[in-house]
Write a structure and sequence with these properties.
alpha+beta, 33% helix, 18% strand, globular
């Protein structure tokens, strides 16, 4: 399930949960793959993804407040 989707009017990032945990897909802050023109993913725990999203905000990227709130709520529930 996604927390936010890149390309929507209020988001420059695509964060979702998958079987391995949380991921910022094709993250614009990560290096490009060597053989394809795509940025690498950033994977982490709820706490790490929250920190990562703060880095996006520091860079001026759009991150929906609802995604941050949901991640914080889920972190408290753990």
């Amino acid at each position: 399930m996604s927390y936010c989707r890149k390309g929507s009017p209020d988001s420059d990032v695509y964060v979702l949960g998958d079987a391995k945990g949380l991921v910022c897909m094709c993250c614009i802050m990560q290096p490009m793959h060597e053989h394809i023109k795509m940025h690498k993913d950033f994977r982490g725990t709820h706490k790490e993804i929250l920190g990562h999203l703060n880095e996006h905000l520091d860079e001026g990227h759009k991150v929906p407040n609802r995604a941050v709130k949901r991640l914080k709520r889920e972190l408290k529930e753990k």
